[in-house]
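Data card: per-record layout.
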Amino acid sequence: MTEHSADIVLEVRGLEKHFGGVSAARDINVTVRHGEQIAIVGSNGAGKTTFVNMVTGYLKPSGGTIRFRGRDVTGLDPRQTARAGIRRSFQIAQIFPQMTVLENMLTADLAGETGRTAVWRASLSPTRIERARKELQHFGLSGHEGRLAGTLPQGIRKQLDIAMASVGEPELMLLDEPTSGVSVDEKLDMMDRVIGPLRATGATIMFIEHDIDIVRSYAQRVIAFYEGTILADGDVASVLADARVREYVIGDKHA
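The structure for this 255-residue chain is written out next.
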């Protein structure tokens, strides 16, 4: 591997996804380097989540390749991609509402290690519990560890979902609308609470976001999707100034 290619985390070439006669993704080409912080933008149905689902194994591509650290991971299932070092959060937090926050973290810890959740109670140890508590502290959730996850406010649920996904310090983290359902006044704080801890682990971050102010504040690069393909890809200022992005993504009809 050359020095130039050594920092490439994700390389997607010619990625496609068809549902019958409908093309949800076509000719998607993306190269992501270690440490980048990338916003994925686009209107509803533009292909953003389809792209994330294919990279994380929740959808099998109809064509093209996905390479992670030089390894072909095209078509692997979600558990396999997670073990490879690719993790994700969801627009609707994937938590266990009848478990406490600490129990949710313990479950994520065991699942990441063994791929099984049903036997987690039998696998508890002081070391595992301490590790889970440190993860909660890392994400600012220590004060919630005894609460049932189903009683948490929306923002804290999403924070917990991201904390659970980060168990094992994955190299690539994909966040699906981390601020959706969070009040306008809380969005910046929410992003601070999740981006900071992820950056501290050295993770490369890609996040889907509709709020352009959040994109400007937290992204170093923007990939804009439109009708299943990439409309623009580059630095934040250039992409958000692109006339097509302003018209089709931001909604500026005077672009």
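Known properties of this structure: The mean pLDDT is 88. The longest strand covers residues 8-19.

See the next section for split statistics.
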